[in-house]
Design brief:
- With 501 residues, the chain is of the alpha/beta class.
- It has helices at residues 16-25, 57-66, 79-98, 114-129, 148-153, 174-184, 206-215, 309-325, 327-345, 377-388, 400-414, 420-429, 444-459, 461-465, 491-500, and strands at 33-35, 41-43, 45-46, 106-111, 135-139, 156-160, 162-164, 169-172, 188-194, 219-223, 247-251, 262-267, 284-287, 292-294, 351-353, 367-372, 390-391, 393-395, 433-437, 468-470, 476-478.
- The strands form 7 sheets. The protein has a 7-stranded mixed beta sheet, with helices on both faces. It has a 4-stranded antiparallel beta sheet with strand order 15-16-19-18. Strands 1-2 form a two-stranded antiparallel ribbon.
Length: 501
């Protein structure tokens, strides 16, 4: 397969495969065990990495070793503050290096709550920076985090459709994007596109999109929440500068780090020359009773308040470890895993896989969404958990329009003769999928176990349906088996035990 997104690795680990295997084997929670409805206790198979990845052990070790030295940043007057300030500054540098963003032209700053916070900040800032441009172009594929912020801050948001792939809906339709750029012209503030779909794992050609956007004099913002952990990214330094990415946003909890420190990497000029959206300590040069002067220094001006130091250092540790291995190596491994997963799922007619499954035509990474024919997506997810200890996610994954459109597409193929209104009504009733998503620790054995479990569910659908009741939220609850999480862990229980010891 052509690695369209690969770059030439710089100073990567000479034994990259060995290092990758070491990272794979030592993720926190990889060997956790749960008692199932059958009464047996087995190791969990974690296939929910698109929601949040497991933390790498090296990341946990780094944080544990840092904790005794913890102090606030923005001072070098005492040893702990000096250490924290220097390492926090290095974390910013590591983000830029990981994304191959020129530090002379780009800045990286951390935000509070994941990619969502970053994209909200970008939308607010670019609206203020370019007030005459009141249109944003995005796609039908987007997570709500890369849709709703644009709707809130701009007069019009245009959703470009996905193209018709070899087997189903594929990546963004570039002809449709060009038509939208041409139609709205100078009103377009920026194009904001997911690098990798959180529903299907379909990879969008972000550098082709960058060229197209720049040809029409607008910007490209990439929602990199699902891209950063799976696909090599080079923001700048291309032979053609039009292929450079203007803004890239992602989050630590999607790339093996603790919590959800969001990160914005952007051209410095886009965040200069106007007052920052958030104000407070650390982002000013001076304050009087009647006025204050924001600093011109980036990233300081965009990071008001005390930062999430531990989360940021944990993220930097993850990025450094992945960079040592080489994201090109990681991407090649995942391409092979994705081929295996799509091949195995395609062996069973009762499993419907959404999105184009021809990876030679439409590259995918990170996630596959599917349904078992005749089985509600919530029931499939519950049975996978309760009887097979396979952790997946179901429903619409904060991408309602995309999920609705893909389900409608499948129904149209299978239920020929229904009107569009009838298909939409049926799609709304059935709206939802099951998603299996992968990290660097996912194995072919995990995929094979998923496929065998799905075959079992398909063959015994009536039996499993009789064991559950659907509650008012739409979840399927087992009639006799109950998981009491407090027996394993609760904050209150841990504090009580510590105080009593």
């Amino acid at each position: 397969m052509k690695l369209e997104h690969a770059f030439e690795a710089e100073n990567t680990e000479p034994h990259a495969q060995d290092s990758l295997e070491k990272l794979n084997r030592q993720a926190v929670g990889l060997d956790v065990r749960f008692k199932l409805a059958t009464g047996e206790t087995t190791r969990r198979i974690y296939l929910d990495s698109t929601a949040s990845t497991l933390r790498l052990q090296i990341v946990q070790d780094v944080i544990d070793k840092y904790q005794p030295y913890y102090a606030n940043t923005h001072s070098v007057v005492h040893f702990g503050a000096k250490l924290s300030t220097c390492e926090y500054a290095w974390a910013h540098d590591m983000v830029l290096r990981f994304l191959r963003a020129d530090p002379d032209a780009y800045t990286a700053f951390f935000t509070g709550h994941g990619t969502t916070a970053g994209i909200n900040r970008v939308a607010q800032t670019l609206r203020a920076q370019r007030p005459d441009r009141d249109v944003v172009i995005t796609s039908v594929m987007e997570h709500h985090s890369n849709d709703l912020p644009h709707r809130k801050h701009f007069a019009k948001v245009v959703h470009v459709p996905a193209e018709a792939g070899s087997t189903s809906m594929g990546r963004i339709n570039l002809a449709g994007l060009e038509a939208a750029l041409r139609e709205h012209g100078d009103r377009v503030n920026y194009v904001s596109i997911t690098g990798v779909s959180n529903v299907t794992g379909i990879i969008n050609p972000v550098h082709e999109i960058a060229e197209l956007a720049h040809r029409f004099g607008t910007l490209l913002v990439v929602d990199g929440a699902q891209m950063a952990a799976h696909v090599p990214v080079r923001m700048s330094g291309h032979d053609k500068s039009d292929r450079d990415i203007d803004v890239f946003v992602f989050s630590g909890h999607k790339i093996y780090a603790p919590g959800s420190p969001g990160v914005v990497v952007a051209r410095k000029d886009l965040f200069s020359g106007l007052e920052p959206q958030e104000v407070g300590g650390g982002m000013v040069d001076d304050v009087w009773l009647d006025r204050y002067t924001p600093t011109d220094t980036l990233p300081d001006r965009e990071e008001a308040g005390t930062p999430n130091i531990c989360g940021s250092l944990g993220l930097a540790a993850a990025l450094y470890a992945l960079d040592r291995v080489g994201m090109d190596t990681i991407f090649r491994e995942e391409c092979a895993l994705m081929r295996h997963a799509l091949g195995r799922l395609g062996e069973t007619d009762d499993i419907v896989v959404y999105g184009d499954t021809d990876v030679d035509h439409c590259q995918r990474a990170g996630a596959i969404s599917f349904n078992v024919r005749g089985v509600h997506h919530a029931l499939t997810g519950a049975v996978l958990n309760d009887y097979f200890n396979i952790a997946v996610r179901n429903e619409c994954f904060c991408a309602h329009p995309y999920v609705r459109e893909m389900i409608s597409e499948v129904l149209a193929d299978e239920l020929d003769g229904l009107s569009n209104d009838e298909l939409e009504e049926l799609a709304e009733l059935q709206r939802g999928m099951v998603r299996a998503s992968f990290g660097i620790y996912t194995t072919r054995g995990d995929i094979d176990a998923l496929v065998e479990a799905l075959r079992n569910i398909s063959a015994n659908r009536d039996y499993y349906a009789g064991l559950y009741e659907q509650n008012e939220r739409g979840d399927f609850v087992h009639k006799t088996f109950n998981f009491d999480h407090a027996q394993l862990f609760s904050v209150r229980g841990e504090v009580d035990a510590w105080l009593a010891a």
